[in-house]
TrEMBL record:
UniProt source species: Durusdinium trenchii
Native organism taxonomy: Eukaryota, Sar, Alveolata, Dinophyceae, Suessiales
One Pfam family cited in the UniProt record for this chain: Abhydrolase_3
Superkingdom: Eukaryota
Keyword tags: Hydrolase, Membrane, Signal, Transmembrane, Transmembrane helix
Transmembrane intervals: 494-517
Protein's name according to its UniProt entry: Esterase
Signal peptide extent: 1-28
Alpha/beta hydrolase fold-3 domain ranges (all copies): 140-386
Keyword Transferase: no
Amino acid sequence: MQPKSGRRGGSSMLLLVLLATSCLLGSAKPSRGRPRTVRSVLLASDLAGRTEPEECKLSGHKDLHLLSPATACCYGKIVKNTSCCMDQQIAPGVTRKTLQRKGMHWNCTEENCWDTVQGPRGRDSFWLPEGATCSTPRTLYTHGGSWMYGSPDTDSYAQLGSRLAKVTGTVVMLTDYPLVPAGNYSSILQWAIDALQWLSLNGPFEGCDEEHGAKRVPLFVGGDSSGGGTTMSLVLTLAKRPQLLGQKLAGAFFFSPWTNLMCNTPEYYSNAFSKIQGSGKFQDDSKLTMYTGDILFQEVTPENADAFNGNAVDYLGGDFELQTDPIASPFFAQPADFAGSLPPLYFAVGASESILGDSVRVAQHAAQGGCDVILEVYHGMWHVFPMYSEGCGLGEPLWAGAYAINQTGLFVRHIHEQGRLPYKLKVEGPNGGPPESSILAKFWQPSVSKVPFFRYLYDPNVRHFSKVGELLPNRDATYSYKDIMKDLAKQSPWIVLPSLTGAAVTIFVMGFCLGGLTEFGGARSTSGTARAPRPIYWGSRSWSLRRSSGA
């Protein structure tokens, strides 16, 4: 009996369909789960002509309203690489100068310094706004980096310094202070005092000291993270010892200052980094994954707090008592420590930071002690977010970062031009009575105490939700076979070849076995009634089984 070609063709067609399906599934699967390459910080010259990064393409989830595209882009990239994505462009219209002040130098070696910039250090950088003269107000800015890393020209501090010079209209001086362990709390604070004294007497050009003589120009100070902590220590030191400078500071501003060297504020717990993994999927068929909390410091709470604490002790030279000293650790300064000749203060801090409380408590105590204070908390923002104002490479600004820098410019310019804060806050008790007649009475000192001008800011550009986590291209109905093949072409061969080869071999063996079992089973079921020889097909060969007649 000849074989039935229809059954054989049906098995072959089934095999082809299963093989084609496995190829499509094999091409799509690596695209959702592929590991993302860590991106290094790009130079400004490298950004020209670049298109939108793949991981920052929008996913089109228009049914949710949580984050702006730039914020979502930064979340997705920083979670993968906490060293990435800081600003790359120098602000237009500003110029840079450097200066080695006499006696202000140190050496960074493998024995006394962990920074990447080794060798002679201590040279200052100056950023001059357009039209700067000897009469232009001046700002001393202290960079962050845990007191262990960074310089005026690395970690995007050149970019930040240029932006501050442009928006504030001041000459911005960044010092290259000795990093821990070459330096410590005492030597770094003294370095800042010496720099401010020099800046008060010398301008950006030679002869400024002779031109002005006893006339002093307005002086501002600023800093971020650990540099913000040193700046606050400087402000408090000058309040105790005003003779060190000979003039009152015009103002001070802070980006995410680290002021609590005990590292025990509640936000170390409540703002701990966490990954939210749902059972469902996004509309593009990717896993429902989101991130909350401090995306820069991703350790669990005890490890994160312990790391901060150990860093702080190193900075203090091993002196544990200084962890609660009101000058070294300003978080523990009381309202009375802020009384006297302190300047107006401006704080910009992210709502998701582990050290959010380091700004909030200091701002409250400073205002209670009589300072004019502006405190702005930015929703969803991470540590020192103004240094990501370009949007992490998305091509559109990070609104919160750009706005905080502009607010700093408004703060400085308004004080310089108007002699006061840009906002005025009036506090009254019940029925227009004095504040001490209200709930504020417990801490209110008449004619002295104030409250911070506080704002909790949301990004006004949030129009649709861009998911954070695995930021991938759309997988909606318009995602065609061509799109799948384009994604496949971008994959590493170490992902593609095993996927395709493994799927193809598996389906082939399954089809091969299924076809053989089908044929063999059919022969067994008809062997009792059929008298004619019946072939069994096994691969490309056949054998005829003849039933014996008993002869």
